[in-house]
Amino acid sequence: MSLLTSLARLRAIDEGVAQPIATVRHCHLSARPMVFIPLKLSGEAAAPLAAMLGTDPAEPRLLAVAQPRNRDLRFAWTADLAGVLLPYVAGFTAETETVERRGADPYERALDAPQLIVPNRAGVAFTRLLGRSTRFRRTDGPFPVPEGVPLLGRWLTYFAERAAYPGSSLMLAATDELARHWASGQSALEDANLAALLAWITDGPDDAAEDPLIWPPAGPATDPGFDAEVLAPAMESGSAERIAEALRTQLEPTWRLVWRAVELLRGLEPGASVAQRWEHDRGSFSGMTAQLAEGAPPQARRDGAVAAAARLSRMERAQAAYEVQRAYDDPLVMAEYRLTGEAFAGEVVDTVPGNTEGEGRSRKLRPLVTVKTDDPVRIPPGTSLGTPERRGQGAELVSAGDGLVTLKITKGMGRGKTPAPGAVPEIGERVCYSSLTDEFQGAAALPEPEATPWTHGGPPRPYEPADEDAREEWS
Amino acid sequence: MNRLDALRGTTPPKPHDARAIAALAANPGCTRRALMDGAGIDKDAVARHLGFPAPFGQSPFAITRGNAFEALVKADGCAELIRMLRELLGLPIDEVAYHDVENVGAHLRHTHTRALIDRAARGEGVGTVYDHPLFTLGIAGHTAYLEPDVVAFQLGGRFHIVEIKSFAVVDGQADPAAVAAAARQAAVYVLALRTLLEELGHDPLRVADDVVLVCPENFANRPVATLVDVRRQLAVLRRQLSRMTSLDRLLDALPEDVTFDLAPDADGRPARPVAELADAVRRAEARYAPDCLSTCDLCFFCRDEARQEGASDLLGRAVRDELGGVASVREALALADGSRAPAQGQEEIARLLRGAERLRRECLA
Amino acid sequence: MSDRLDELERRIDELRAGVRRAMRARDGSAARALRAELRTAEKAWDSLVSGEKPAGKTQGPRLVTVREQVHQALELLGAPAQARLVVAVSGAFLAGTIRSSQLTSLRRDEERSFRSSPFGRPYYLCAALTDRLSPARGYLTVSTWPVERRVVGPLSPRVDFLTCAIRIAEHAAGRRSPDGDRLLSRMARNIPGAGDEVPPDPARVAEAARRELAVHAGRDAGDRAELAGRADTQLDDVARLFGATTLTTVPRSVMAMGGGR
Fold first, then answer.
1. A260 and A345 in a common domain
2. Which of A80, B147, C154, C188 has the fewest beta carbons under 10 Å from its own?
3. Residue A467 forms part of a structural domain
4. By three-state DSSP, how is residue B178 classified?
């Protein structure tokens, strides 16, 4: 957490309402997101109890396991879930665009992609487990499951994996996104409670958010008091209606909260890079669709050593890119870097637009810009700089001191003898420069999976789903 | 009557269990907690009487599931456990002897445990797994009774604590918080057994600092065992217990007449005026942190107190550390908007806060 | 009718909230009273919504008593066994319908019956005896078995487990059933060399169990003979069947018991 956010939290306590820590929205919001609120049976790893889901706030769909102790009925529930989620996902595969790539075949990318929104991180974790517990199942053989269940498992696994990918919006946890845009006056731990966090953002803090009788937990864990006093007797009665109605009371409040969160986030303008990241998501979604169409096996239980390292490296680069993009999109995020001296903003006080370096054919246009700033600049001379105002340009810090910073523009000036109009900031213009740049180190050099060294377990055996996976007990 | 007993007054003591002892290490700097635990005070009852009942509860489904899983692991002379010990630790095939310590009357269980462990340590008789043993551990002058799930012996002449938990290990991974809690709890048992061996004149290090954690694997009921190293948890626990024996200093700082007595009436219901009790509790300084919300019965009371004081502790340790020790919300905000001059040593954090305030105003203008 | 349902639902919600509030305040008696009201309201709701009187759980005619079903299962197993295993065997091979909860009071009832008219029945379901000749927790035996079989030394739980596995394997070989296979493979998993085929190979399981049994049998037989000798000389008829009461006059409540869970 940065000092800027900490200050916002202090201010939130003082004013009794959450404070903005972003000026734009940093996630993509689908026009038709699928809100998904799962509940699980306490004490079990991944035994579903119910879910409320749908794309229309006015039409929540309740799926409840008719008798949570019955394993077959749990699978029947996952089949019902597949019946809702799979058509939703498939609805995005038809319309595509052709994307040309250098040095590779063009591919088809979906014009839009599905988006799952769960209340909190625990909802993501449960989605992952539900995916894990269903993707290896088979619809034939000794322990058959209903049609659609294994496919559902692969999609749930995919969504949960994307949720861990920095900057991806295919699956969002409402509390995480809210906390990325607003600072409440409570701890990060308490922010995981959706009702509490939303109360801070809207009406001000309210202890009722922690009272399970007023705001049931947002799942997947249920309130122990509810389990003891309501659910257990309902299960004992054997009445599916009673069980379903009991679970509805626990889901409906959260349903309203998640849509309220969506509405609040929609109220923010999207940041400039959001569309680009969503494009990446669309590409990834199409890749997954293609894999399924080609009959690829379910995602492995565990990555091999090389795949794990490659994934880690990809995630690290995505994280770095996400952080830079957010700073460039949002002055309030950039302010964090200004506070630590990695960026500065101020007014242009002097320019030398026609400054050149080199002689003859290698003579290049290198305009000089001097900026007056109140920020504590801690960037050594020679460091590459970027600026949100002119994203195509690159600059280099020449000197800094006494509130004045001189830099020269080194990239994006074209081949002309004089700068294009507007390419060099005018005197009096407000500008911001940062040593954070979009230039990322390339992918780590990793061996091919077949060449995994023995220290890392040797080449992985290709993953072949075993019979045992399909008939794994599910008790 | 000693000072600690006076703190508890006429309310009966609440014995510590392993989870409570493990939680002692969670917030070692909290004087309020150290005194209450030292005096064997029922913090849950205090919190309820103060009108801030603890937010903890366990679902009957989770309890049933936990009991069923433990019964499965221990069924038929611990058949499942013996298989796992053979696989995991190479337990020899002829080591299968099973003792159910609970076969003796409840009041004899501890004595019986001592006798069995003593015999095992001397190499007399047969003994491989000991079910339902009962240990004791002195906590600030009180005896805590501890019931580990199982103790296993004869793994290379060493004792192992076996901890059975019903959270799942899926593809070799389990909830890290659940594993950490199990490790803290198991460390208490390791310490108790080591203390027992020492009392009996045996080498305490014959108790392994690896504990055997048994959990259901994947989504089935099939148990799987893993060795968990609890050396770190043991070190933290020892340090905390040694602090607990030096409560005198904390007691000296407390006014003589302070007591946390609930003054129960004839029916055992607390009759102490709430305001009076709250006042007494406030005399012992707390160190509230959001982590308390998952470990301490008094958490809601202390959080309320922190709110009234406007303490930056409310926001968690990360924020507090970042504020460089500025403890009050108002003070930090005053430093940020320049309405308060920094005290000595606050110059740097004040400069940062002013910078942050300037930037926020600029960006949100 | 839907008005009435609405009203009931409102009432049920109120009562539920009331129960949970009482639970949180640890006010047991208020919670109990509210809960009773709640049950009534819920029953009324159930019958209204389904349009019929709530029917009790249908129970098929019980031709064989619980006691006889347990007896049959124990005779099949041929060794002291825990309730869990008795229930599983009964269900898998004897078309049994017993549930574990029905076994909890069984031993006490048997003891009462024996005390009122000793040896009045052809058999009694009774306790296994520990090395202190007290009843062993959780184990069931049959009075007609020799005392050697009914006492348990330290190795006996394992020996009895292997004995039961052999008996089950022999039985399963004759009549395969999914429940029987599941039970056998669960036992096989814990016996070295029993294989992990699905379904399990009964002959292989029995052979593996015999192999391990041979390791423990001698020592166990010695322990048991010694215990049986003591039981014969020290115990009266009741104690020989139901175990000697432990020499305790101190009630449990005096002990400050700290729960580990």
1. no
2. A80
3. no
4. helix
How close A205 gets to chain C, by Cα (Å)? Answer: 22
Which residues constitute the domain of residue A204? 3-299
Residue that the structure tokens 């996400």 belong to: A322
ipTM of this model?
A: 0.89
Look at residues C131, C147, C209 and name the one whose alpha carbon lies nearest to residue B99: C131
Please state the pTM of the whole predicted model: 0.87
Tell the residue number behind the tokens 């055996």, with chain if given.
A461
- Whether residue A442 is contained in a domain is answered as no
Task: Label residue C223 exposed, middle or buried (CB < 10 Å: 0-12, 13-18, 19+).
Answer: buried
Residues near A369 by beta carbon (within 8 Å), at least 6 away in sequence: A348, A350, A351, A395, A406, A407, A408, A409, A424, A425, A431
Tell me if A242 and C45 make a contact (CB, 8 A cut-off).
Answer: yes
Cα angle A279, A284, A286 (rounded to 5 degrees) comes to 95
Judge: B316–A7 Cβ closer than 8 Å, yes or no. no
Rounded to whole angstroms, the Cα distance separating B8 from A320 reads 55
DSSP string, C173-197: HHS--HHHHHHHHHHHTTSTTS---
**A332: which chain B residues are within 8 Å (Cβ-Cβ)?**
360, 363-364
**Each residue of C154-194: pLDDT tens digit?**
999 999 999 999 999 999 888 888 889 999 999 999 999 99
**Residue A473, burial from CB neighbour count under 10 angstroms (0-12, 13-18, 19+):** middle
DSSP 8-state class, residue A398: E
Q: What is the DSSP string of B229-240?
A: E-HHHHHHHHHH
Interface with chain B: mutation pick from A5, A7, A14, highest number of B CBs within 10 Å? A7
| CA–CA separation, A96 and C143 (whole Å) | 78
Instruction: Give the number of domains in chain A.
Output: 2
Distance from CA of C3 to the nearest CA of B (A): 33
C-chain residues within 8 Å CB-CB of B125?
154
Q: Which CATH number fits domain B60-241: 1.10.3470, 3.90.320, 3.90.1530, 1.25.40?
A: 3.90.320
Closest partner residue to B146 among C134, C161, C260, by Cβ?
C260
Which residues in chain C have Cβ-Cβ distances shorter than 8 Å to B100? 130, 136-137
Q: What is the pLDDT of residues B125-171, one digit of tens each?
A: 788 999 999 999 887 767 788 988 888 877 778 999 999 999 999 98
For the record, the structure tokens of A151 come out as: 């496919």
